[in-house]
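Recap from last week: sequence in, structure out.
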Amino acid sequence: MNIKQLETNLITWSQAYYDGTPIVSDAVFDFYLEQLRELDPTNSILFRTGHGYIPKTSHLTKVDHSFFCGSLGKIKDVDSTIWSNEPFIVTPKFDGGSVVAYYQNGTLSVVLSRGNGVVGLDITRNVIHTIPKQIHNKEITAVRGELVVSYETAKKLGASHPRNKAIGLSQSINVNQEELQELHIVWYDLPEFLGTKIKIMETLKEEGFVVPYYRICNSWVDYKQFANKHDKTTTIIPSISGTFPIDGLVLTKCDNSSSIAYKFANEIAESVVKDIIWQLSRTGRYIPVLNVESVFLSGANISRVTANNLDWLTQWKAGIGSTINIIRSNEIIPTLIGVINDSTEYNMPTHCEACGTLLTIHGKDLMCENQNCSAKNQATISMILNHFKSDGIGNTIIDDIISIHYLTTIKDVGEWAHYVELEDLKTNFGSVTSTKIKLLADEICNRKITFSDIFTMANIPSVSSSTIEKLITNVSMTEFIDVFENDNRAIIRSNKWIDCFPTYKQPDNIELYFDRLVELYILFSNQIVEIKQKNQPIMMTYALTGTLSKTRNEIVKEFTEYGCKFVDVNKADVLIAPGPSTSAKYKLAISRGIKIMTEDEFRKFLNKITFPYKFI
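Predicted structure tokens:
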């Protein structure tokens, strides 16, 4: 790439990264940032915080920082001489979202994202649960930290990366309160406070801030021995459970006069593309995968490399016969980062392998746009079943349900759920699994759902959960019903809808998959309820005991939509239990005359009553 192309790409990639929708991996971004540094060492992008990022979230207030909130410079082994002569402090470099909390006379004033270093976004509302509201040291005016979510939480919530989930939770309007409790901030600096690095870390701990580990290294040799043994992708936080993403270590002079980031080096290998296989995704996108000559890289033999999409592949000209550079991003995913000898032979398909439809280029992707493509239908059906499944039903069982019962359309799912019998299921599944599948079918027929659920199950490409949240906030339940009952797809281009879409893809894709939304609406029209507002009175309190059909989090999420609140058993109107028990909760409920119900009894009861309600 020439300098102009590098500038354009780095700004685009940086904007996407800080908006929580990264286009390339950190390793790819760093590779091309270094390439720009070599070609043009004085380029302004190299010295701009966020490398061209401009905060653009419309629903959050923009606020000026009281100091320049910059990013750290980076160090390589060859630059180590300045760190060799005296001890320095090492802390993990968390891969999350940078934040600053401001205090006035010991009272929390506001929490800002870093933004572009000069202007940040006010995210106080969504992060206040993880920050001391009052501190004793009145000299502290600003505290800097990093928003983080654990790998375990990201996996549980279906996030692509913990960093994306952390940033998304911090900036969301209608945030799930249960998910919000998984968002943490680890604090590492007092920008406007005089003192050594050790003094700063000790002060943070004394004031109740969560801090990372910190280690004194007496020399570069000492540091390298430590760094070589350090996990390159994860670390722990002493006071919080789980493992958290890092992308390097931070080195700070003991007197806190300067800090610099040490990023773990990515090993690069060279190989030749032997063939290109186009894989059909659940959304109808065809994703190119490069079959390359096997090469040993970061402890593994690599023979397949992702090429993201059609546009990515053709920009690189990484066709059959080309010689390419590869890294293993975060030591896991082999990624194309450069082409030495290019080729334009892409072995590109012309028709969909599942339905035979002529493929079209849609944005950056090669797409099958047939709404009734069997591959898309199966993916949507799988999304519906997964939405209602209980613990113990995995993807293999979901695939078997679809195959054995010939579920090929959304309408098929509704008919199957209403008419399938337990004995029918036992023909192909064991007794325990059959019971769980029957419960899944009953849930499809009876569970209350929202329009947020409808959009989620529709499996629309590029329509993220944050976009769905904005739609549900802007558009009322009555309006949604009118849109779907009267096939009013033109409303997608109205200002009320357009304001919810950060990219052109989203309204295009919703319009493209509008019929699917209508089918889902028809299937669940009698079960749709409006999302309960936070200020709505609690309809009923309940407690849980024993082994239930879903995880506790799933149960709480479901009953919250009815306006019910999960509490300790001694404060509950109802105890939900699978049956008689000798548990302490069960005995306490009996002794206090608390109503005891099974899950199914409680659901049936809720479906019969109306708001407001006081249990008698």
